Amino acid sequence: MIDMEELLNRQDQNKLVDWIESSGLCRSSSSRRTFLIQIELKPEENNVEIAEHDFIVDLIYRLVQSRNTEILGSILKQLSSSPFCNHQKLRYLEARLGLGNYRPSQPKARPAYFVDNRVFRLMPLDIGTIWGLQRSSFIGILAGFEQDEIYETLRNVEFVLSEALSEEQLKANGCSPLPKREWIQLDLSKSDGIPYNKSDILDVAVNFSGEAAKSLKEKNFPPLSIPGFLFKINYKEINDYLPKIKNWCEALLGELFSSSESVAIVIDITYSIDENIPQSLQDITQSLQDIKSQLIKVCGPIPIELMHLDYRLHPQQENLSQCMDEWVKGDAESQSPEAVRGAFTIISEAKLLSDILMDVWVNAIDFDKFHFNLFCQNGILNPDFNQTKNLKLENLTLALLRKYNDQPDSSLKALINKLVVSYPTLQDFNNFCQNTKEQEDDFLYQNDAKQFEFALRANIKLEKAIEKFKAAPVSYVPTAICWLLAASPPTKSSIYKILLLDPKKRAIFGLCTPQEWQKIKKRQDKERQVLDCRRKRPLIYSYSL
Question: Sign (positive/negative) of CA torsion 412, 418, 420, 424?
């Protein structure tokens, strides 16, 4: 809670009174009634017949005394379109009131996939883990949804990281102090040009802490903190905003902050639940590539990562569901084997959509009447041309395992056992699924990335992964275990355990100081091991644009 004296001091109240007077919103008794209704107060409970100045002073005083931040926020919103209002100071007052401040909580899972070509493309990475924990500079370009709450996720990761860092045991162990990242969400539609000093950031800031607002107003940044910025832009407006994105990234990384301040930028490209997702995927992938090619020109040495949120996070999937109902579900329920096989073939080639669509296909099949041998005619489950792995068989088996985990059924289990006979990799995974608790240690010990990918896609939780990571010798950190940990959202417990480890292990999650990373880089073999564990994602602490 904010102390009473900190809510709005006399100087801030006077500014607010001056702005309301200058705006003309309360010039007459009738306009005062309208103003009160707009901020959701009852005119009959306020004296609108007194002088304008006295009315405004009395109103603001009562709201401050009653700590009514909601109505004060409504007043600031009304003033935001006034040309007589200093918008930097307005943002400052918003932060003072705590408006828009989030409620700290455990970060939610935000699994995402590389958009550009990478190995194990269907093994996700958690946005909170890979971008929220990292203390070095990077640009993350993410394709997401309007309600994806990426800003809140990054703030929540910072909250649990701060809690972990406050543990006394870390201080006793001499853990290197790590800076706090202050995340600020920017609305580039409010930008009229290139920012020339830190206080200009307040003109476009929409989500930020009071500490950040106070420092930016003074053209500084909170001490012992590093900056993080998030732009949220609808993908249909990318071309319009591309020059602003480019200018702001260049200014934030090269003019307003030094390379030693480890600036992070996340560009959250969103689309609506009303979009046709399969078409959007193709369009947005190209848009992300376009942004990257433009940013490389001005931010060359900074790592730029292209990611796409898992479609299963989509709030309603209305259009996707409609698409499914039209062809996937309909064909799967069809009495025609050709239609069933045709839908299956299309789904298998749907890349990031394949698991979602395969679940719909599997749920639509009546397995009591399903003729497996008839379905397998014409070699539909044979490996694709020039592929050593049978992707169709993988997609189908994992969908069946997901269904079996939710609704165990003997006929379904028999079908899974029959499917995996000809595919040893899937057979091994199926054996593990029959007895996960007893076999988890052996499963993790294998450090098999493909098996871990299967586990993630089959929704199998591997509780002991962090302990295996801790126990591994520093000289040999198991790569696939690191990939597995990076696929899960961070918790205070997991962060705390990582912070107690050697700098080389912490560097895998970006939780090291510039000095520690420079020491690691002196040995190329150590640097290579860390980057392998990071799926080739660079760590950059200093650069020159």
Answer: positive
Report how far residue 473's alpha carbon sits from residue 505's, in angstroms, rounded to the nearest whole number.
10
Q: Which sequence spans correspond to the domains of the chain?
A: 4-97, 111-313, 318-428
Q: Which residues pair with 184 in a beta bridge?
A: 229
Identify the three-state secondary structure at position 489.
coil
Q: Which residues pair with 233 in a beta bridge?
A: 269
Would you give the DSSP letter of residue 219?
T
Among 280, 265, 268, which residue's Cα sits nearest to residue 228? 265
Burial of 377 (0-12, 13-18, 19+ CB in 10 A): exposed
Distance CA 445, CA 195 (A): 51
Distance between CA atoms of residues 183 and 81, nearest Å: 25
Q: Quote the tokens at residue 208.
A: 């930020």
Q: What tokens does 30 get?
A: 């009738």
Q: Are 80 and 39 in contact (CB under 8 A)?
A: no
For residue range 126-159, list pLDDT tens digits in order: 999 999 999 999 999 999 887 788 999 999 999 9
pLDDT in tens, 218-243: 888 988 899 999 999 988 888 899 99
- Amino acid present at 503: P
Closest CA to 357 of 415, 388, 387, 398: 398
Q: For residues 397 and 388, is the Cβ–Cβ distance under 8 A?
A: no
Q: What is the pLDDT of residues 467-510, one digit of tens each?
A: 999 999 999 999 999 999 999 999 999 999 999 999 999 999 99
User: How far apart are the C-alpha atoms of 96 and 309, rounded to whole Å?
Assistant: 33
The helix (H) or strand (E) run that includes residue 465 is helix 465-471
What is the sign of the dihedral through the CA atoms of 465, 469, 472 and 478? positive
Q: Convert the pLDDT of each residue in 300-348 to its tens digit.
A: 889 999 999 887 765 445 445 455 556 677 777 776 778 888 888 888 7
Q: Cα separation of 388 and 374, whole Å?
A: 24
Angle between helices 87-97 and 10-23 (to 10 degrees): 130
User: What's the whole-model pTM score?
Assistant: 0.81
Residue 510 φ then ψ, to 5°: 75, 15
The 10s digit of each residue's pLDDT in 337-354 is 788 888 888 887 777 778
Pairing of strands 225-234, 205-207: unpaired
8 Å CB contact between 350 and 278: yes
Segment holding 143, helix H or strand E: strand 138-145
Residue 353 CB coordination number (10 Å): 17
First to last CA, the chain: 42
The residue among 183, 123, 191 whose CA lies nearest residue 149 is 183
